[in-house]
């Protein structure tokens, strides 16, 4: 299994690791700071560095061959098993993911409906809500700005699977369920605002989200309303 350093500290941008295996298109490592695609959040990109060589990491994903291992997709011939490498992630991409992902939790607090779709990328984030209620774009925008400005602390903690079973309302997503079998579940708490299971990367205070805007609200189906977020340009902040 790959030790997931990003679960405890999303600010880590580099670490030392050892290649455990080559897989098609990349390598698995014994430990990493790179977040793998999952839970709606895109995987990290960056570099592997060893012996004066640099391999561009084009994506990070969960291994299809080894349960619990994380695959780092690289350009060119990957380093061999046993190679000691330095993992470096794209800091700007990671920060965008952290800001957008935390902003989607604020959306969940403002819109109390089940979530049936999610996408968090470097340039936008979207949530699909299971409801036929109309959304007020200006009201959502004002609510986001208020929660960001209030500077709520953001932290994660772990609860047992039994605690989750006793509080099923914590799970907001209809499409992505918390992983089972480990005996514990990671939850993300925005103090006084939101609490729900989440394995993604986040900022440590809502003030760090900065200026985000609601770029679009769509009616995707009779029972689905989509909200898309973007980063505000300087003139919009």
From TrEMBL:
Keywords: Hydrolase, Metal-binding, Zinc. One of its GO terms (molecular function) is metal ion binding. Residues 1-227 form the Alanyl-transfer RNA synthetases family profile domain. GO terms for cellular component: cytoplasm. Signal peptide: none annotated. It is found in: Cytoplasm. InterPro entries: Ala-tRNA-synth_IIc_core, Ala-tRNA-synth_IIc_N, Alanyl-tRNA_Editing_Enzymes, Thr/Ala-tRNA-synth_IIc_edit, Transl_B-barrel_sf, tRNA_SAD. GO terms for biological process: alanyl-tRNA aminoacylation. Its cofactor is Zn(2+). SUPFAM superfamilies: ThrRS/AlaRS common domain, Translation proteins. PROSITE patterns: AA_TRNA_LIGASE_II_ALA (PS50860). It comes from the Bacteria. This is Alanine--tRNA ligase. It comes from Roseateles puraquae.
């Amino acid at each position: 299994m790959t030790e997931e350093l990003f679960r405890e500290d999303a600010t880590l941008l580099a670490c030392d690791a050892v290649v455990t295996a080559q897989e098609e298109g990349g390598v698995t490592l014994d430990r990493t700071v790179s977040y793998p695609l999952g839970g709606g959040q895109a995987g990290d990109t960056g570099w592997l560095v060893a012996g004066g060589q640099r391999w561009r990491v084009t994506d990070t994903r969960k291994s299809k061959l080894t349960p619990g291992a994380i695959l780092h997709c690289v350009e060119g011939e990957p380093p061999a098993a046993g190679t000691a490498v330095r993992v470096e992630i794209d800091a700007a991409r990671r920060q965008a993911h952290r800001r957008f992902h935390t902003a989607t939790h604020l959306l969940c607090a403002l819109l109390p409906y089940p979530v049936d779709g999610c996408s968090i990328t470097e340039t936008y984030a979207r949530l699909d809500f299971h409801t036929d209620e109309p959304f007020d774009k200006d009201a959502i925008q004002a609510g986001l700005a208020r929660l960001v400005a209030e500077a709520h602390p953001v932290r994660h903690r772990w609860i047992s699977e039994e605690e989750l079973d006793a509080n099923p309302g914590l799970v907001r997503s209809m499409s992505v369920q918390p992983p089972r079998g480990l005996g514990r579940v990671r939850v993300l708490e925005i103090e006084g605002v939101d609490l729900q299971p989440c394995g993604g990367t986040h900022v440590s205070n809502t003030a760090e989200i900065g200026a985000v805007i609601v770029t679009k609200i769509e009616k995707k189906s009779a029972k689905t309303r989509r909200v898309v977020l973007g980063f505000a340009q300087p003139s919009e902040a």
